[in-house]
């Protein structure tokens, strides 16, 4: 029974912990000093205790780690996996935390098992449990990494779509990179909120930093322009280069909005629409006074 292993672990827990910690510290997947030895030891001790308690409570010999008896073990591994994902550990480094426990447990079983059959049965059960836990660790790690990457992408998207106040009632939204559906949503939300906050009349969407405009990108632009118009702001598109203009003509893409070649031209038009003008001020020539 697996509970027999629990009794063996309880008696020899300190020895197993020491051997396991030694393997982790000397392993090539130890993490390069990104985690302190004291913290690693505390994680190992807590996990080993939770595993022993789960095995002791599992009187039926069930090896399904999704059962209630392994809830504490799963929670601990989830915390370990998430922390390692944030710290930049690789999947193999994270999985090693579980798989390296096999060696000290197998050595313990060989030492205390009375016969070959018992050794084989208990070794197989422990292998099933640790393999499942290792896979569980990798799955949580992968999910955590995806969450980290998604959060970083959102932060980059927000930073790469700043709305700049050029003048009272005039905003500029410089776009850099390719527009996709997710980024268009971020752009739209940022622009609309800025229109409300600044009571803007005109929004200039500058696409100088957009490498290419195809039908899909044009659709995303049209959605942003339509949303801005619903908020009461007129839109001007600037930064359409000759190559992009030719591509749009060949594709039959029509933005149905006033466009200018440069942001400066768009700003001049926006100022005109709002009853303003930029004029050159002649610097008066300083008169020379003879003393």
Automatic annotation (TrEMBL):
Residues in coiled coil: none
Gene3D superfamilies in alphabetical order: STAS domain (3.30.750.24)
Keyword check for Phosphoprotein: yes
Source organism, top-level taxon: Bacteria
Occurrences of domain STAS (ranges): 160-274
Record key words, sorted: Phosphoprotein
Matches recorded under InterPro entries: Bact_StressResp_Reg, RsbRD_N_dom, STAS_dom, STAS_dom_sf
Signal peptide: none
PANTHER family on file: RSBT ANTAGONIST PROTEIN RSBS-RELATED (PTHR33745), RSBT CO-ANTAGONIST PROTEIN RSBRC (PTHR33745:SF3)
Name of the featured protein: STAS domain-containing protein
Organism: Acidisoma silvae
Lineage: Bacteria, Pseudomonadati, Pseudomonadota, Alphaproteobacteria, Acetobacterales
């Amino acid at each position: 029974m697996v509970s027999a292993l629990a009794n063996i672990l309880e008696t020899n827990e300190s020895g197993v912990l020491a051997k396991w910690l030694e393997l982790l510290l000397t392993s090539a997947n130890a993490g390069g000093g990104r985690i302190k030895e004291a913290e690693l030891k505390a994680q190992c001790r807590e996990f080993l205790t939770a595993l022993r308690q789960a095995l002791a409570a599992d009187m039926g010999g069930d090896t399904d780690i999704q059962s209630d008896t392994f809830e504490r073990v799963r929670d601990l591994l989830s915390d370990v996996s998430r922390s390692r994902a944030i710290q930049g550990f690789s999947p193999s480094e994270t999985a090693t935390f579980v798989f390296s426990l096999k060696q000290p447990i197998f050595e313990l079983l060989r030492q205390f098992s009375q016969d070959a059959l018992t050794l084989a049965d208990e070794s197989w059960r422990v292998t099933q449990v640790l393999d499942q836990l290792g896979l569980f660790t990798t799955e949580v790690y992968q999910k955590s990494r995806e969450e980290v990457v998604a959060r970083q992408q959102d932060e980059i998207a927000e930073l790469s779509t700043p709305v700049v106040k050029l003048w009272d009632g005039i905003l500029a939204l410089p776009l850099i990179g390719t527009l996709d559906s997710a980024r268009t949503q971020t752009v739209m939300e940022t622009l609309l909120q800025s229109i409300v906050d600044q009571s803007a009349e005109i929004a200039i969407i500058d696409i100088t930093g957009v490498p290419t405009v195809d039908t899909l990108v044009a659709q995303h632009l049209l959605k942003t322009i339509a949303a801005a118009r619903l908020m009461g702001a007129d839109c001007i598109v600037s930064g359409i280069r000759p190559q992009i203009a030719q591509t749009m003509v060949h594709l039959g893409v029509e933005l149905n909005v006033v466009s200018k070649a440069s942001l400066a031209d768009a700003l001049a038009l926006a100022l005109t629409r709002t009853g303003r003008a930029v004029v050159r001020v002649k610097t008066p020539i300083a008169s020379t006074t003879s003393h």
